C-alpha cells in the first residue's frame, strides 16, 4: 500500500514537473514570437522613416530650386523654404500644447498594448 501511494505521488510530481516545463516552453515561444514582431515592426518603421526623410529632403530641394528659377535668384528659394520651416518650428514650440500629442498617442496605442490588457482584465 505504501509503495502504491509513493508511486502515485511520484507520478503526480512527474506530471506536474512536465506541465511546468511545458508551460515554461510555451511562455518562451510566446515571448520569442512577440519579440520577433517588435523587431520586424521596428525595422519596417525605420526603413519607412528613412524613405520618407529622403522624399521630404529631395522635395524641399526641388521646391527651393524651382523658387530660385522662378525668382531668378541663386538663394531666395532656399531662404523661402527655410523661412517656412522656421515658422513651422515656432508654431510647434510655442503654439501647440503637449496635450495634443498626448491625445494622438492615446489614439495610436488604444488598439495595441492597451487593448490586450483590457481584454485580459475582462476575462
TrEMBL record:
Superkingdom of this protein's organism: Bacteria
Pfam annotation, one family: Phage_holin_3_6
InterPro entries for the chain: Phage_holin_3_6 (IPR009937)
Keyword field contains Transmembrane: yes
Entry annotated with the keyword Transmembrane helix: yes
TM region(s), chain numbering: 38-63, 75-96
Keywords: Membrane, Transmembrane, Transmembrane helix
Source organism per UniProt: Rufibacter immobilis
Name this protein carries in UniProt: Phage holin family protein
